[in-house]
Prior knowledge:
Low-confidence stretches: 17-21
Structural class: alpha+beta
Oligomer: single chain
Strand order of the largest sheet: 4-3-2-6-7
Number of strands: 9
Amino acid sequence: MTYVSKSLLAISIALPLAFSAYAKPIPDSASMDIHFELPAIQASMYARPYVAVWIEDQQRKSVRTVQLWVGKDEWLKDLRSWWRKVGRYDRELVDAVTSATRPAGEYRFSWDGLDDAGNRVEQGTYTFYAEVVREHGGRNYIRQKIQLGESSMTHQLAPTQETGTITLSYLVND
Protein backbone atom coordinates (compact mmCIF):
# COMPACT_ATOMS: atom_id res chain seq x y z
CA MET A 1 0.00 0.00 0.00
CA THR A 2 1.43 3.36 -0.96
CA TYR A 3 1.78 6.35 1.31
CA VAL A 4 -1.03 8.15 -0.57
CA SER A 5 -3.33 5.13 -0.24
CA LYS A 6 -2.63 4.91 3.49
CA SER A 7 -3.25 8.62 3.89
CA LEU A 8 -6.57 8.45 2.03
CA LEU A 9 -7.62 5.45 4.09
CA ALA A 10 -6.79 7.30 7.32
CA ILE A 11 -8.76 10.35 6.19
CA SER A 12 -11.77 8.26 5.13
CA ILE A 13 -11.88 6.72 8.60
CA ALA A 14 -11.15 9.89 10.59
CA LEU A 15 -13.47 12.27 8.71
CA PRO A 16 -16.79 10.63 9.67
CA LEU A 17 -15.59 10.32 13.26
CA ALA A 18 -14.69 14.01 13.35
CA PHE A 19 -18.08 15.05 12.00
CA SER A 20 -19.95 12.78 14.41
CA ALA A 21 -18.21 14.54 17.30
CA TYR A 22 -19.91 17.77 16.17
CA ALA A 23 -23.35 16.24 15.56
CA LYS A 24 -26.01 17.99 17.54
CA PRO A 25 -28.95 16.17 19.07
CA ILE A 26 -32.44 17.35 18.25
CA PRO A 27 -33.74 19.87 20.81
CA ASP A 28 -34.99 18.42 24.11
CA SER A 29 -38.39 19.98 23.42
CA ALA A 30 -38.74 18.30 20.01
CA SER A 31 -41.18 15.47 19.34
CA MET A 32 -43.18 14.12 16.43
CA ASP A 33 -46.93 13.76 16.64
CA ILE A 34 -48.39 11.13 14.34
CA HIS A 35 -52.02 11.12 13.28
CA PHE A 36 -52.69 7.67 11.85
CA GLU A 37 -55.94 6.48 10.32
CA LEU A 38 -57.18 2.97 9.59
CA PRO A 39 -60.13 3.17 7.18
CA ALA A 40 -63.31 1.13 7.54
CA ILE A 41 -63.05 -1.57 4.88
CA GLN A 42 -66.13 -3.51 3.87
CA ALA A 43 -65.06 -7.11 3.26
CA SER A 44 -66.63 -10.48 3.98
CA MET A 45 -63.47 -11.67 5.75
CA TYR A 46 -62.22 -8.47 7.39
CA ALA A 47 -59.41 -8.86 9.93
CA ARG A 48 -57.81 -6.04 11.85
CA PRO A 49 -54.46 -5.10 10.30
CA TYR A 50 -51.02 -5.67 11.78
CA VAL A 51 -49.17 -2.36 11.96
CA ALA A 52 -45.53 -1.42 12.48
CA VAL A 53 -44.39 2.21 12.63
CA TRP A 54 -40.68 2.96 12.91
CA ILE A 55 -37.96 5.55 12.21
CA GLU A 56 -34.65 4.89 10.41
CA ASP A 57 -31.52 7.02 10.10
CA GLN A 58 -29.64 7.87 6.87
CA GLN A 59 -27.76 4.58 7.04
CA ARG A 60 -31.14 2.77 6.93
CA LYS A 61 -30.68 1.58 10.50
CA SER A 62 -33.79 1.49 12.67
CA VAL A 63 -33.50 3.99 15.50
CA ARG A 64 -36.95 3.57 17.05
CA THR A 65 -39.99 1.34 16.74
CA VAL A 66 -42.79 3.74 17.61
CA GLN A 67 -45.82 1.40 17.39
CA LEU A 68 -46.30 -2.32 16.83
CA TRP A 69 -49.84 -3.72 16.66
CA VAL A 70 -50.14 -7.49 16.27
CA GLY A 71 -52.39 -10.19 17.65
CA LYS A 72 -49.98 -13.02 18.31
CA ASP A 73 -46.22 -13.35 17.98
CA GLU A 74 -46.62 -15.80 15.10
CA TRP A 75 -47.94 -12.93 12.97
CA LEU A 76 -44.95 -10.65 13.50
CA LYS A 77 -43.29 -12.10 10.40
CA ASP A 78 -46.21 -10.85 8.28
CA LEU A 79 -44.79 -7.36 8.84
CA ARG A 80 -41.99 -8.43 6.53
CA SER A 81 -39.98 -5.21 6.18
CA TRP A 82 -40.07 -4.36 9.89
CA TRP A 83 -39.40 -8.00 10.86
CA ARG A 84 -36.33 -8.29 8.63
CA LYS A 85 -34.80 -5.05 9.89
CA VAL A 86 -35.77 -5.04 13.55
CA GLY A 87 -38.07 -7.69 14.96
CA ARG A 88 -36.12 -10.87 14.44
CA TYR A 89 -33.05 -9.40 16.15
CA ASP A 90 -34.50 -7.92 19.34
CA ARG A 91 -36.99 -9.99 21.36
CA GLU A 92 -36.90 -7.55 24.29
CA LEU A 93 -37.90 -4.67 22.02
CA VAL A 94 -40.76 -6.70 20.54
CA ASP A 95 -42.05 -7.48 24.03
CA ALA A 96 -41.72 -3.84 25.10
CA VAL A 97 -43.58 -2.22 22.19
CA THR A 98 -46.16 -4.78 21.05
CA SER A 99 -49.82 -4.03 21.62
CA ALA A 100 -53.10 -5.39 20.30
CA THR A 101 -54.41 -4.80 16.79
CA ARG A 102 -56.85 -1.90 16.46
CA PRO A 103 -60.18 -1.48 14.67
CA ALA A 104 -60.83 1.11 11.97
CA GLY A 105 -60.50 4.61 13.37
CA GLU A 106 -58.20 7.56 13.96
CA TYR A 107 -55.20 7.21 16.24
CA ARG A 108 -52.73 9.70 17.63
CA PHE A 109 -49.39 8.87 19.14
CA SER A 110 -46.05 10.58 19.38
CA TRP A 111 -42.36 9.87 19.14
CA ASP A 112 -40.26 11.61 21.79
CA GLY A 113 -37.12 11.84 19.62
CA LEU A 114 -35.34 9.08 21.52
CA ASP A 115 -33.83 5.96 19.98
CA ASP A 116 -34.66 2.45 21.21
CA ALA A 117 -31.83 2.74 23.78
CA GLY A 118 -33.31 5.96 25.25
CA ASN A 119 -30.81 8.40 23.69
CA ARG A 120 -31.85 11.59 21.93
CA VAL A 121 -31.26 11.26 18.17
CA GLU A 122 -28.99 13.62 16.28
CA GLN A 123 -30.27 16.29 13.92
CA GLY A 124 -30.45 15.14 10.33
CA THR A 125 -32.46 13.27 7.75
CA TYR A 126 -34.52 10.28 8.84
CA THR A 127 -37.21 8.16 7.24
CA PHE A 128 -40.63 7.45 8.72
CA TYR A 129 -41.97 3.98 7.87
CA ALA A 130 -45.38 2.42 8.33
CA GLU A 131 -46.15 -1.13 7.30
CA VAL A 132 -49.78 -2.24 7.37
CA VAL A 133 -50.79 -5.82 6.58
CA ARG A 134 -54.24 -7.35 6.76
CA GLU A 135 -54.96 -11.07 6.67
CA HIS A 136 -57.23 -11.70 3.67
CA GLY A 137 -56.48 -8.13 2.62
CA GLY A 138 -53.81 -5.80 1.38
CA ARG A 139 -50.30 -4.82 2.31
CA ASN A 140 -49.01 -1.25 2.31
CA TYR A 141 -45.46 -0.08 2.92
CA ILE A 142 -45.24 3.67 3.42
CA ARG A 143 -42.12 5.81 3.80
CA GLN A 144 -41.45 9.51 4.10
CA LYS A 145 -38.13 11.35 4.46
CA ILE A 146 -38.17 13.78 7.36
CA GLN A 147 -35.69 16.45 8.42
CA LEU A 148 -35.20 16.68 12.18
CA GLY A 149 -33.50 19.79 13.46
CA GLU A 150 -34.25 23.18 14.97
CA SER A 151 -37.42 23.86 12.91
CA SER A 152 -40.89 22.35 13.02
CA MET A 153 -42.34 20.64 9.93
CA THR A 154 -45.44 18.77 8.83
CA HIS A 155 -45.93 16.08 6.18
CA GLN A 156 -49.26 14.71 5.10
CA LEU A 157 -49.16 11.28 3.46
CA ALA A 158 -51.87 10.28 1.01
CA PRO A 159 -54.29 7.47 1.87
CA THR A 160 -53.52 3.95 0.68
CA GLN A 161 -55.61 0.80 0.38
CA GLU A 162 -55.00 -0.04 4.06
CA THR A 163 -54.48 3.42 5.62
CA GLY A 164 -56.21 6.73 5.66
CA THR A 165 -54.28 9.97 5.66
CA ILE A 166 -51.19 9.94 7.88
CA THR A 167 -49.95 13.28 9.23
CA LEU A 168 -46.48 13.70 10.70
CA SER A 169 -45.92 16.87 12.74
CA TYR A 170 -42.39 17.42 14.01
CA LEU A 171 -42.67 20.11 16.67
CA VAL A 172 -39.90 22.10 18.29
CA ASN A 173 -41.30 24.04 21.23
CA ASP A 174 -39.51 27.10 22.57
